[in-house]
Design goal:
Structural class: mainly alpha
Mean pLDDT: 85
Number of strands: 0
Shape: elongated
Low-confidence stretches: 1-9, 21-30
Length: 293
């Protein structure tokens, strides 16, 4: 039996708002977007001169909530992201986090994966401040929302690495690697980055042969994907130089440092941080060999 007769404009929205706007279990108000959707249904019904029962209204309300959960609002709008990027480059990290928090509070229907992205971005600001405790907490919140995001997994691994939890870092690097291999393939620069991170963790554990194995995998990919004159390839050579140096194989360390420097001197001016760093590495290896500069 219809409780309204022929539907009139505004009646369904008013009824649903009064009937369902307050959730008795949570106290949360009905989302504004739900009311907009109901308004559109209401207008369509009015044009058709149709009637609707209370049971149908309840069902419609539940279906709308389910649909909205799937069609939640998009992640940060481009204009806001541009503003956030600017704040980050200007080291205005607290303002960055405030913007994120405000956006999150003003948008209730954020998809779970997108919400994870917000926490991920906040974590990056704490990491930049060398506040690894807060960064770790934000990354963990992000991971609780999305465990399939390789960037979050990888960056969480980096935080663990920075606080010397190498075994845990390796665990998350491997998870990130597994996802990227599946989604990007085994010749993508991102995969090379994962291999480099794994190499660094094994290097820090003193497992130099394992480190070399991963560094070589990274180098192979970057040579093919980036070429032999790319800074990323120089990083691979430098990493191999570092691990051979740690093994006491100074000739091999020198060989790789020279390759790294050959690239970096082409793409960076003299005095550039990366150039200076590798030059110092080369100098240390030569000193160990007793070679004059």
């Amino acid at each position: 039996m219809s409780i309204f007769g022929t539907v009139s404009l505004g009646l369904i929205t008013n009824y649903l708002y009064n009937r369902f706007s307050s959730d008795t279990t949570t106290g949360n108000k009905m989302n504004k977007e739900i009311l907009k959707r109901i308004k559109r249904i209401e207008e369509d019904l009015a044009k058709q001169g149709k009637t609707i029962t209370e049971e149908e209204l309840i069902k419609a309300n539940k279906e709308l909530k389910k649909k909205l959960k799937k069609e939640a609002v998009a992640i940060i709008p481009p204009e806001l992201q541009t503003e956030l990027d600017q704040l980050f480059t200007e080291y205005r990290y607290e303002e960055f986090r405030n913007k994120i928090d405000t956006f999150r509070k003003e948008n209730e229907n954020i998809k779970q994966k997108d919400l994870a992205e917000l926490y991920y971005q906040k974590a990056l600001t704490y990491e930049a401040e060398i506040n690894y405790t807060n960064a770790k907490e934000e990354f963990e919140t992000a991971l609780a929302l999305d465990r399939e995001n390789s960037n979050i997994l990888n960056q969480y691994g980096i935080i663990l690495y920075k606080i010397s939890q190498y075994d845990k870092a390796i665990k998350y690097y491997k998870k990130a690697l597994k996802i990227d291999l599946k989604t990007l393939g085994d010749e993508h620069p991102n995969v090379a980055t994962r291999y480099n991170n794994l190499g660094s963790a094994w290097d820090s554990k003193g497992e130099y042969d394992k480190a070399i194995e991963y560094y070589k995998k990274a180098l192979k990919i970057d040579l093919k994907a980036l070429g032999d004159e790319h800074p990323g390839t120089a990083t691979d050579y430098n990493n191999l130089g570092l691990v051979w140096y740690s093994k006491g194989e100074y000739d091999k360390a020198i060989e790789y440092y020279k390759k790294a420097l050959g690239i970096l001197r082409k793409v960076h001016p003299n005095g550039h941080l990366h150039v200076d760093t590798v030059e110092k590495h080369l100098e240390m290896a030569r000193q160990k060999k007793g070679i004059d500069l």
